[in-house]
Each structure stands twice: as C-alpha cells, then as structure tokens.
Amino acid sequence: MLAFTLRRAIQAIGVMIAVGIIAFSMFRFAGDPVNQMVGMDTSGAERAAIRKSLGLDDPVLVQFGRYIGNAAQFKFGVSYQFRLPVTNLLIERMPATLELAIVATIFAMVSGILMGVYSALRRDSWLAHVFQAVSLIGISLPTFLIGILLIYLFSVTLGWLPSFGRGDVVRIGWWTTGLLTLSGLKALIMPAITLGLFQMTLIMRLVRAEMLEVMRTDYIRFARARGLTTRAIHFGHALRNTLVPVITVAGLQFGSVIAFAIITETVFQWPGMGLLFVQAVQNVDIPIMAAYLMMVSLIFVTINLVVDILYTIVDPRLRSTVSRAH
Amino acid sequence: MSDAVVPHKVEGRGAHAAPGWFKRALDSDLFYSFRRSKITMVAAAVTLLFFLLAIFASLLSVQNPFDPAQLQLMNSRISPLWTADGQSPFLLGTDEQGRDVLSAILYGMRISLLVGVLGVVFSGALGILLGLTAGYFGGAVDGLIMRIADVQLSFPAILIALLINGIAKSVFGNKLDEMSMLGVLVFAIGLSFWVQYARTVRGSVMVEKNKDYVAAAQLIGLPAPVIMLRHVLPNTMGPILVIATINLALAIITEATLSFLGSGMPETMPSLGTLIRIGNNYLFAGEWWIVAFPGIALAVLILSINLLGDWLRDALNPKLR
Amino acid sequence: MTESILSVRNLQVEFASRRGTLRAIDGVSFDIAKGEVLGVVGESGAGKSVTGLSVIGLIDPPGRIAGGEIHLAGLRIDNLPAEEMRRIRGKRIGMIFQDPLTSLNPLYRVGDQIIETIRTHLSLSETAARRRAIDLLAEVGIPAPEKRIDGYPHEFSGGMRQRVVIALAICAEPELIIADEPTTALDVSVQAQIISLIKRLGRDHGTAVMLVTHDMGVIAETSDRVAVMYAGRVAEIGPVQDVVRNPLHPYAKGLMGAIPTLAGDDKRLVQIPGSMPRLSAIPRGCSFNPRCAFAFDRCRVERPEPLSRGTQSVACHLYDTVPAESAA
C-alpha cells in the first residue's frame, strides 16, 4: 500500500517536471521575455541590464533549475500586463474558480447520478428518453452557447439572475466566498449549471451504462434469487457497485472542470483564474499562461493521486491485491 | 415471418458474389443499419446540406461578408425579414457593421468546417504516424509517446489548444493575418486530438507485429513498416472513421470556442464562433438575431455530426474507450 | 411418490427474439418429493437451467413462462405477483448458481450479505442474524467462521465461496434448493466435497433439491431420481438406479454409455453422433430423431408423449408399439 502510494507519487512528480519543462520553454523561448517587459524606447544597454538581472544570460539548465525552484515556492514571476506578481493574481482569483468548480461538480454528480439511475432502471419510460435526448444535446451544445442561452432567458428576458460577476463576496482570511450572500448565490446559479452540464451528461451516461452492466451480473441475479427486495438490490447492491467507477471518473474530471471553467468564466465574466488565463492568452502574457498551466497541472496530478489512493480504499479487491503485489 | 427472411438473405449474398462496390455497399450491414435509423438519415442529410451550403456560400449570399467594401453602415442592425423592421434582402437581419447575418453564417460555416476538417486530417495523420512509430519500434520510443499521450489525455483539449494558440501568438507576434490564424487553429486542434488515433493504431500494430508475414517480409528484404501499414490501416479503418467523425464535431466545437474566447478567427474573417462572440455583445440591446442564428447553425451542425458519429460507432462497434 | 414439494406440469417457456419466438421449454412435467434429490441432466441448451430459473421465477424478458403450472407445496407460484414471488425466493426456495466467483457481491463482506438475506426473510435482530450467519458458515464447513464472516468474497477460495453461496441459499430454511451446476466451475478435488455438502444439508434439513448438471456421474452419486432433458423436453424420468442401469430412451442410453466406469473396461465409452439442435431449428416429430439409431417414420412426424414403464417414464415411440425389453 505504501509502496503503491509512493510509486504513484513519483509518477506524479515526473509529470509535474515534464509540465515544468513546457512552462519554462514557453517562458524562455516563446518570444523574448525582455521585449515583452519593456517599451519600444528602451535602450540596448537597459535591455542588457534587465536581461542580466533576470538571469537570462545564464546557461539554460541553470535557468531551468531556478525556474523550477521558484515554481516549487509558487513564484512565477511578474505579469507583463499587470506588472504584478503572477502568484498574487492567481491566488486572488482562485477562490472564485474553485467555488464555481465545486458547486458545478456537486450539481453534475447529484443530477447526473439521479438521471442515470432512473434511466437505467426505467429504461423504456418517456422520462428516460427525455434524459437521453438531453444528454445528446448536452454533449452537442458548446458550453458558451449554453451560457449565452441561459443569459438570454434568465437575465435578458426574465431578469431573474445577474448575467455577469460574482455578486457580493465575503472575505474570510485570504479566501473570498460568494456562498454567504444572496447576490453571490444568485450569481453562482447560471455559471454552475453551464459548467456542470457537460459533466452531468457524462456522469449520467456513465451511470446508466455501468448500472445496466451491473444489473446483468451474476451477483445481482443471485441477490434476486435470495429474495432481496427490489429496493435493496437496486440501491444497495447495484448502485454501490455502479458508483465506484463513477466517482473515480467524476473525481478525475474535477481537473477538467477547472480547465473548462475558462469558457464559463469568460461568458459570465466570472472573476476567476480562467478569465485571467484567457486574457493572458489574448495579450500574450506568458508568465500567467505558464503559471496557470503549472497550477492546473498540479491540481490534476494531486486529484489523480488522491483518487488512485481512495479507489484502493473503496474497493476491497484492489486493496488486498495492491498490498499483496508489493 | 421473419424466420423465412434470414436464410434467404444469406443465400442472396452468396448468389451475386462479386457485384460492383456500389451494389455491395447497398447490401452491406452498414447501409442496412443506416436505412433503419431515421434520425441518422436526417443527420446525414443535414450534415451534407451544411457542407454544400458552405461550399457554395458565395453563390447563395447577398454579399461577401469578408469584404468591407460591400458592407454599408446604414444597413446596420436590421432585424430579420419577418419582423416589423425587417428589410429585403437581409433574411436573418444584419449586424452592427451592416453585415448580412445569413451571408456571414454561410461564410462562417465555411471557415468552421474548413478548420474542422483540416484539424481532423492533421490530427489523424499525426496520430496514425505516432501510433505506427510507437507500435513498431516499441521500447523507449513507445514508452515516451504513450506517456505523452496519457498525460495529454487527462488535459482538456481546449486548454492545450489555447496554450498552443498563445505560444504561436508569442512566437509570431500578436498580429497574425487571417490565413495564418487559420493555420494556427488547425495546428492547435491537430495537436490536441491525436491521442485516440495513436492508441488505436498502436494497438493494431502490436497485434500485427508478431504475425508471420512481417517476419517473412523482412526476410525477403521488404520494408516491414510498409507491409504493416498495408495490413494495419484496413484493420483500423473502422475505428479511425468513428474517431474522425466524433472528432470533427469536437474540432468544430474547439474552433468555435477558441474564436468565442477571442483567440481564434478574427472579426475580419469570422467563423461561427467569432460571429457568436460578436453577437453576444448585442444580446442585451435586444438584437438577439445576431447571436441566435449563428448559434443555432453551430448547434445543429454539431448535433448532426454527433448523431452520425454515434450511429457509426454503434454500427461498426469498434472497441473505443 | 409421497407428498410432493414441487410439482411442475406441462411447463412452457418462450423467448421472444428477432427471428420470432423460440420455445426453450416445451411441456416439461416432474415432481420433487419432500427431502428428495432430483437430478436434472442434459447437454447445455437442453433447458435444464431455464427450468430451474422458471421455478424460482427469475426468467427475465424477453423470456416468459408461456404455459403450464408450477406448484410449491400446493401453492401455485408461476403466476404470483412479483412481490409475493420475491418473498418466496430465498425463503422457501433457495438457489445456488454455477460460478461462486461471481455470485457474491465483491464490495460487501460475506457476513453482511448473509445477514442481509436472513433479515429480509426472518424477523431477527442484527446480532441474532449475525449469530445465525456464523452458525451457517460453520455448518457449511467454513473454518473459523466468527473471523471469516467479516472477510470479503475475494479473500475466499472458489470452494469456500461456493460454501458461502450454499449458506446463503439455506439461510432461511427453504423447502427446496435449486442447484444450477453447483460444481462445474470448481476444481475436481473440491467438487465431491460440495456435492456431499449439498446432499448432507438436504438430508439434515429435509430439504428437497433440484440438482441441475450435465455431469451424469454427479447425479448417479447424489440423486434419488433423475430427469433426462433433451431440447426443452423431458426424455426420461425415473429413480436414478433404474435409469442408470436400464435407460429406456435412446438418448438416455447414449448418455449412460458416456459415464466412465472403473470396472467396465470392456465397455467402450459411447458417443452420441451429432449435436443437439438449436432452439430455432428443432426438428419435427421427436426432436431426437435425426441422431437416433432407432428412429422410424413415426418419429419424424409425431411428437412422443411420456409413457409409463414401471418406475420410469419415457417419451419415445419405441415403447408405444413394442414392449420395453425388445428395444434394447
């Protein structure tokens, strides 16, 4: 178990180093950092001075070591557009993105599992067909179109919900939350639905397929032969066995949710990391792009690691094979 | 009743053993399942229609929306023809710059489809090449390529495409002309979607590699990769076709998303995504048609391609994961 | 025959398929007395398992019971509402499936699955049910049951898992156990143990057993009576020693010839030529006629009905016209 965890952790570090190389190459080789920082009228001598102060004349390996060292301490340099440390910019916007992603994931899991279970158990009901149709549309409609549609319906036409921003936020230490104010909650509804819809579709399809698969297994047939109630079979046995892979996938998807938040945040002008990233791409603000890549990768890798470990705890078969194999 | 049909059909197939490919296609299971699914037939018709509209956009449009000389500001923000303020010949109204929305959609669709198709071709070629390389050489090369594939697969394509886009802008400078932007988009999409092809082809190569004919080919001095290519590709044609169809929808979504985020096609040569981005600014002013029609066009296009892809996957039933 | 626990009369089971309706069971009748072990034997696809599943009411769509009656101790059960049938399953009829490796839910402790079943059918407290579960595990021969009860299925060997499955099948003291190929998936060395366990439990609790298997050897060893099935029908049924020593139906003769015996080295193993027809292509008349060495014109036209011959009952035209002795 420990060896397994350790091996996964080493793999995770490997991935982070690879991402670090990409981030560093972006920073160092995609355009000249000095040109990005200074104005047109800066003299050659001044440029050379800046170049030296940034350590850009050092051997590439030294520079890379320094970059990774700084990154490990969450120092990603200064944004070209804002002239502020990238880390501060990201930290400031992180709560907005995380809150949005978490609420969207909860929404996606709850509704996706409910819809999936229903359409697996009542396969031929009209509602199950409606769910199937919704899932096809959920996959086919680009996220930003869903967002625009919601804004048109609930902001422009009905005037019920705000079309942009986070509403009023409450500051708790360095964290800001919109969950404690009415306007914050209202502002969260549409972005969370927009962001969660695709995941919901995914989870629903997965739950339905898995559950149908599980219902065909021998142990469900045997559970029926034992005379267990339909309720116990569906919700005790079938659902539990369905949820193990589903929760794994949903967990792994959390990283994607954060990345997909880029689009949702742009549609709703949500002041999160994604919006910052999109602006950085438009303005070629490489330090922010590189830092965002590193941050998202870190979140990805951490979640992967946690899910891997959790999975072995949830599924007793894996637990013992893992401990036996090592 | 149906009992009698089945053996008859089997005999019928044996009877004319070598018909033309067209007849064979009509007789195939694929076509049979196509004919049985009405929704697939509709989806295919719509997809075909959209491709035709895009190809013949210049014949069907009242103006060339990419040509500023043809746009007149006095025609700006006209609502669709059937509303009170509608004006001929602007069937779906006009936008801020006096651009006919229908013409813009037709031309925009052309861009969207072009980027989508080129992106799919590029990612397919890249994926097949890398899959062949990984499967054929094995060892460290295989390990490296598949590791990259694993890592990349866990990152959403849109993030990768955005990053590539940003890097390209940084390398080439912020002001790219329209055609180079199109190239950058194709490149970004291609690099984002190669993994599935590579995995499929690699799997097939691994199976074929140990077969006798490869050793035999090497013995008589034939280049094994060429021989394998001729065996591997037909085997993987089905799955690749399915991946390509589904990826066409994904590529179009990705392009539209990038353009919507302002990192795609510029407003001087808008794709559907760019049109939606432009139209979104007028939503609150009540000029819904500027965003609604490009949005509907995009949604219907993607839905049709997805339906085709779903059907193709079920009909060919390759093991896709 | 004394008081019968299970009585199946003219059972018909159909499966709707794309090619039309297939009849998997066509007019099967048999009885099982209290405490009796009935072996049901036949090739795969003969309808043995489907018969077992219809008795316990687990035929799933597209399959359905199309005709006939099933009585459990006088109560007709083939047309009971789902909820009432559910109450009978596990309580009055226990079932053992072929593969113990897949019969248990891998995510639940063995004990939880037994306790769940006990508490579904008997009003016992959690602790009482747990005590009973431990007793059951001990009874089916699992060592250190008070410890093993908290194990997960994957921690048990195949044979041990099948013992757990048996404990689950008998945990509410059913009157009838249906064992569907209970030893097929097990090692040969374990098979005998499981068979003798089922036999012993049946005897101790006075439980009737319907033992479905393709292994005539297993049946000869355990059963009181045997039903030989072929293509969805009962070809022959009778006391096991009579059917083994003096099979009447040509198919049963072939089947008995296929049992390897230690002593009879001069008797070659007999093989029945050909294979059983598919459900979609069952021949007219007697379904065995294309493979039968004794087939005559009538066999190709008319379906044979069961005929009584002493203790045995046989569905064969040979016995309708000619006395039983001369057929052999």
From TrEMBL, chain B:
It is found in: Cell membrane. Signal peptide: none annotated. Pfam families: BPD_transp_1 (PF00528), OppC_N (PF12911). The chain crosses the membrane at residues 39-62, 113-138, 144-167, 179-198, 213-233, 240-261, 288-312. Gene3D superfamilies: MetI-like. It comes from the Bacteria. It is a multi-pass membrane protein. Keywords: Cell membrane, Membrane, Transmembrane, Transmembrane helix, Transport. GO terms for cellular component: plasma membrane. GO terms for biological process: transmembrane transport. InterPro entries: BP-dependent_transpt_permease (IPR050366), MetI-like (IPR000515), MetI-like_sf (IPR035906), OppC_N (IPR025966). The keyword Transport applies. PROSITE patterns: ABC_TM1. Belongs to the binding-protein-dependent transport system permease family. PANTHER family: ABC TRANSPORTER PERMEASE PROTEIN, OLIGOPEPTIDE TRANSPORT SYSTEM PERMEASE PROTEIN APPC. This is ABC transporter permease. It comes from Bradyrhizobium japonicum.
